[in-house]
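Tutorial handout. Part one gives the primary structure; part two gives the three-dimensional structure as tokens.
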Amino acid sequence: MEKEKQGSPGAALVTGGAIRLGRSLALGLARKGYNIVLHYNNSESEAQKTREEIRGLGVSCELIQMNLASGLNGESLIQRAAEIFGGLSVLVNSASVYDGGTIAGTTEEIFDRNIQVNLKAPFFLARAFRNLAGSGNIINILDNKISFNQYHYAAYLLSKKTLAEFTVLAALEFAPTIRVNGIAPGVILPAAVRSESYLSWRVEAIPLKRKGDTENIVKALHYLLDNDFVSGQILTVDGAEGKTSVGRNAESYQGD
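Part two.
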């Protein structure tokens, strides 16, 4: 791969970058001067809107569509992303699925979807990034639920806990040329179906007594990129909720 132009931080691939947290991360990278390759699955119109927002910040942005649940080709996605800007210096594994379900209530379909998107995709994208780019940064987006054992989200939580372990393994194997870290957000972007009473209930259990916002996660991303002596770390951004004993969640909520 060709070297990035001198003075430019290079190009970043953000999976699931069209909406929600992925969108905020892509915009945060654009503000740092990165050209963006925005991956999406079904959110084509949102991806186009995000692309225009990113271009409005004075950098370039191109889109790549791929279904990570059924059509994953890690080498192809990394290769296509790298070819757009002549190189790739950052991979942000943000694409995720989020299914509730106890162990007893988890179907093979739910299990496979969560493992495929939340673990297998980051695994093979990271491998391809290492093989093609050779140097740079990989950031895996996790969840502060990895601090708990909420069996109400069995397949999802298993996929994210394993991704956290993979983050450490990859940091060791890919060193010294690639740094690998993770970010574990807490209550940042609750699903639209969550009620105000539910959110208040969640906030009660957060030691800082407030929810976070996407800028808190963007700042974490910037820190991990800027501090070149940090690797193999999970940066939890959750107002210390993960330090409590159990953690609250929608499945154990008794309100409404």
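Part three, for discussion. The first helix runs from residue 20 to 31. The chain has seven helices and seven strands.
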